[in-house]
Amino acid sequence: MDQGSIARILKQVSGGEDEIQQLQKALLDYLDENTEIDASLVFSRKFYVAQWFRDTTMETEKAIKSQKDEDSSEGTHHAKDVETTGQIMHRAESRKKFLRSIIKTAPSQFSTLKMNSDTVDYEDACLIVRYLASMRPFAQSFDIYLTQ
């Protein structure tokens, strides 16, 4: 991954969100801009929003499950785990709120949500997709699957 390009995109995309959310917003804005050129981008946009919402839900469920497992096994690291679980839950809720706002946005309002039309080009969009895909659990554990 080209971390320099990712850092450049993050500088161009202003916002108080976390890094992943900023990249998601940049990618969605790129897809919105180019829906007139390629109608399949509307489906791509909906797919990404649904997938990210599902990922956030799964992350939350895993955090709750791990917290329950920790509660039943031992309580020595409990305070640290609760803080971590709380942070995961807070981050998940903010991501869900962001994705809900995207879902509720009518297609005619997409143009009002755009930041700058020249922020992300095709190459940057491809880089964002690869970067976000590398953050998914399957991509992170692909070496394990491959060796097995």
From TrEMBL:
Organism: Myiagra hebetior
Domain of life, per lineage: Eukaryota
GO biological process, one term: embryonic viscerocranium morphogenesis
GO (cellular component) term, any one: Scc2-Scc4 cohesin loading complex
Region (Disordered): 63-86
A GO molecular function held by the record: chromatin binding
Biased composition (Basic and acidic residues): 63-83
Protein name: NIPBL protein
